[in-house]
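Q: what does this look like with FE2/S2 (inorganic) cluster bound?
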Amino acid sequence: MTAIGLTVNARSVEASVEPRTHLADFVRDNLDLTGTHLGCEHGVCGACTLLIDGMPARSCITYAVACDGARVTTIEGLDDDEITTELRAAFTREHALQCGYCTPGMLISARDLVLRLPAPDERSIRAGLSGNLCRCTGYVGIVRAVRTVIDQRRKRGIAPVVGGGRQMLGPVGSGNARSAATVGSAARTATNVERLDKLAGTMAIPDFTPARAFSDQFTVRHPPDRVFDMLGDVSRVAACLPGASLTGVPTRERVEGAIRVKLGPISADFRGAARIERDVENLSGRIVGIGSDQRSRSSTQGEIRYQLVPTDQGTATRVELSIGYSLRGMLAQIARDGLIRDMAARLTADFARNLDRYLAGDQLTGSTEVSTSLNGISLLFGLLRTRMRKVIWRVIGR
Ligand code: FES
Ligand code: FES
């Protein structure tokens, strides 16, 4: 992973990214800026066009790490931009879109033409938009929309900007490459290490909006304060979690660890860090974590909220869980929602059983099931057994 810092839509963003991650995936998956569309992912269709340091660029063939220090503007960042507002109105008036898939990239390229073309010349507009493909409109409405905006602006006395403000061309179409080149590689490495250190800090584990969420609960035959104390002991919690291990010395607020998951043909070792929050008054807590697996090129963000509820006159505890997660990469393509829920349910059940045993005084050792990986095949058979049993009971019950 490489640490980068850039400005996206006037907001400072620091992140740790795989060197192979392209900018379009970065803004869509990490920042939820899904207005940047992906078509060919080969630099041909222009659907992914956005601005880097004010210049249109194809984000599908630009690595996110190449944009360290750059100013990126996506279509969402042009909501209040004067030219884009005029273009949006003209596109609507001239019926310049149908499905709209090409439109964000088209608007960004069109904005560049409006900025720099001296006159509404159809030939230049068609040449300028030749890198943005539209499968719906036939281009007539698009060209007419761009022409009218250029025409109206020149009539209002707004002069073109020579070269659209370009200073020089670099790897990402801007002067950013020149400033980067003046910084020695040692200095860049130091900055990177500094950023990684910062990202590894507690503050670097950001809040996020989970793509998926579900809830679960279990009951243990021990009073809430004992369970709460136990949940505050990170090493013991990890020991109760199948496939989990710690990779650093935990504190009360932070833990670094790994969890092994096998899902069908893919085996993943997620390594990451989590931020821990506890509310003693309400016997509740929250764990927010990030992790990635190099082999399957998958990454995840997850959040677990728990609330302890006393039951049986306070002699037992119901642990209510609310779990949210976002998964990206190869695992996201095969891990269907239902399968993840079932796996989480099995994981929760194993955790509850181990927690119960631990609180009852059992010492969990490496030979117990807690050290095994979260094996998808055995889970799958377990799940199939459970589902078959449910179906049989349903049939018999009729
Ligand atoms: S998706 Fe980038 S050019 Fe087609
Ligand atoms: S409006 Fe559908 S691809 Fe352009």
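Residues 340 and 346 are 10 Å apart (CA to CA). The radius of gyration is 27 Å.
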